């Protein structure tokens, strides 16, 4: 995901080859056909619903690792990957988490075998040499809080979209929650362990149980898009 620096900042326009980076071969789609069948698109986007109750079937460590692995592959600005995930699995940790949720969200969260607390690293720029060695000079620009916080928050939220899609692709169900006291949660020494991050979303994970609510209205193409 490209990021445009403000006018007046020194932005390198050199190619990857000029910067000494060996480009990987692009795996093109020569057929120009959909990468997913109609049935697969339906299974990933149309059939899954937000879950408010979950079965007792466990979510394994291997599944959590695969959720993260695939989520991390989605594009972000500078490849910065600011998303941080806290997997809440133990009874004691779940009880602490429930205290930060609005009352109407507690039953759903309590029934999920895993709750994922998604946040963004407020000092994501410190790892520039790892995630973008070709653009490490940009780290100085993002040392300013007013520059790094908005970009970190935005890209972590983009990664949250990848996260939910990956959860569904792996056959699990997701129940995202924003009714949370995130400021208080950020200060919890047990759940976040003093990490310098800001949580913004809790996602309940597991195998959902019905009944599900009727799908809400989705706006029409003509209503929310335009071509110029």
TrEMBL record:
Domain Nitroreductase: 49-207
Residues spanning the membrane: none
Chain residue ranges for the region called Disordered: 1-38
Gene3D superfamilies: NADH Oxidase
Molecular functions (GO terms): oxidoreductase activity
Protein name per the record: Malonic semialdehyde reductase
Species name: Rothia dentocariosa
